[in-house]
Amino acid sequence: MDTILFFIFAIIAVVCGLNLVLQKHPISSALSLIGVMGSLAVLYLMLGAEFLAAAQVIVYAGAIMVLFVFVIMLLNAGSEKPGGKSWFAQIAGIPLLLAFIAVMGFVIETFLPALRSVRFGSFAGGTAREIGRVLFTEYLLPFEVTSVLILIAILGAVVLARKEID
Amino acid sequence: MHHVPLSWYLILSAILFALGIAGFIYRKNIITVFMSIELMLNAVNLSFVAFAYQLRQVDGQIYAFFVMVVAAAEAAVGLAIILTVFKNRKTLQIDEIDSMKL
Amino acid sequence: MTFIVVSLIKIAIVMAFFMTVLAYLQWIERKVLSHIQLRVGPRRVGPHGLLQPLADTLKLFLKEDLMPAHVNRFLYRLAPAVAVFLCLLSVAVFPFGPEIEIFGVRTQMQITDLNIGILFVLAVTSVGVYGIAIGGWASNNKYSLMGGLRSAAQMISYELPMGLAIIAPLLMLNSLSFREMVNNQAGYSLGFIPRWTVFQYPFPQVFGFIIYLIAAFAETNRIPFDLPEAENELVAGYHTEYSSMKFAGYFMAEYANMTTVCCIAALLFLGGWHPLFPAPYSNLVPVVVFVVVAALAFFHGLQPARKWDNITFPIVGVIALILAGLFFVPVLNTILIPIFWFLSKVGLLLFVFIWVRGTLPRFRYDQLMRFAWTFLFPVALINLLVTGLLVAVTTGH
Questions:
Q1: Secondary structure, 3-state, C205-246
Q2: Nearest Cβ partner of A55 from B4, B38, B65?
Q3: ipTM value of the model?
Q4: Contacts of B12 in chain A (CB under 8 A)
Q5: What is the pTM of this model?
Q6: Where are the domains of chain C?
Q7: Chain A residues lying within 8 Å of B75, measured CB to CB
Q8: Model confidence over B44-61: pLDDT tens digits?
Q9: The CATH number of B6-96 is which of 1.10.287.3510, 3.40.50.300, 2.170.120.20, 1.10.10.10?
Q10: Do A26 and B2 touch (CB under 8 A)?
């Protein structure tokens, strides 16, 4: 059951990721990215990170990607123009990417110490209660710093996107 | 085999990261490029969560949580920049946004 | 094995009930609206227009399914499906009553109890905006696009006060699972005030409840916040180009979303299935309600104002009496009484939605945004801070 679920959602994630790269229109890419995020949320759930799975859908798919889709619809700039790619990227791009994946796979399989096999429900540390406890005790300072970062980001976004005062 | 080894999750993460790189390099639409960055962040998050599972510690998940928060801030500012760029240049093709001055 | 069978039965019951409610909600809405506007509403199909939902569904089935030129075909088909799928998904975690025992099988009156139930619902509703946004974009029509854009902006803006309004009662209930949340609202303080979060010590969530309701109106695109489909500005907004079953999908999604937000409000703020009065009296309330309904129906049946009234009203009266009788059956009443209280709360909230639609005008778009960001959001934040402070002080952490 675990294996079937993993394969279903891993394949969805990879296909959606490919679609993101291959689609010409940004809105198709955005929807594929939502597909990747949704399937990653399921994988998080299988790894025992239930709070993170919910946060993934709420924050990433429900807020960040809505913002992307909103901007794409607002600008309505249409599909990408073809051409203009460098010869090096066209020839060496795919082999280099495959090489990267192969190297990573090799590193993961050989250099890492013995990895567990994933059994759904064997690790239940990702509950909202546990995340909250760790976040507000050990990681309190980073948490506060991120909130300042978000405040800065809000101010920056407002300043950048407001209408010019004539 | 009834259970998935954790390394498969890590390899999936590597594949998604590679796809993010590919999108970042191949695509010419500034929004798609930005979305490829988000894909890479997601791939990294998956390996954080996988390592959290391996070490039976919640810290990895907290890192992933911080990545999410920073990605939200990044998206807000980045999209505001894209809006401004489009307002001034009337294009989203990154090759055409190549002059420092209008 | 029993788990799967029981789950399938529960899903079947809940879905059948939910779909009927959705179909008849539209009939109720038309009836209530027309009575607010001094009309009679649908009356032709069946007694008092009761078969109108069936007729409408049949009509939508038989209509031509238009595919406008220059639309993005894949996304155009996908969007209504996404809308319907996501709005039906959240029903899976709502509890309708306590644990019960039927034919020796103990089960919860709920399809499944997630320990992150409220997060699940928030996730599903926050993704629900894509159905509308993508539909508006794929239609390739400026009015649809405007509707989709407005909807996306509106839903992002109102999700914030809604989320903050939800967090405040969560602080008091100390759980994310709907079942535990409702269980923590059981009992009565001072012997008669129910310990629902709207009334609960240390900080009654009255403000939170009002903020939630206002945000819920915006999240479901209902009047006074129905800017995405404002008919005198945008034709029909995001579903201008949709016809036949795809239109029906959007229509159903709107009512399903409305029911969902009302269920959340009932579970989170109004104590779920817990009755308003302590036990011995509260068990008589459903009986009294149905007997009063029966009496009213018989009274009107004796003085028929319209043709057929002397037949249809007594039938309604008899049905109400039978329902009242069911509450005296010993096995059934443990099941029926919680369901009665839960449904009456949800029904009351749904009535408020319809009532507001009949009475309030539509906001202007800039008013809508200013209201969210300069009034609702700060108030929700203050409500959350005060709640958090009082909970921390009273629990002594």
A1: CHHHHHHHHHHHHHHCCCCCCCHHHCHHHHCCHHHCCCCHHH
A2: B65
A3: 0.86
A4: 10, 13-14, 43
A5: 0.86
A6: 2-274+329-395
A7: 64, 67-68
A8: 999 998 888 888 888 888
A9: 1.10.287.3510
A10: no
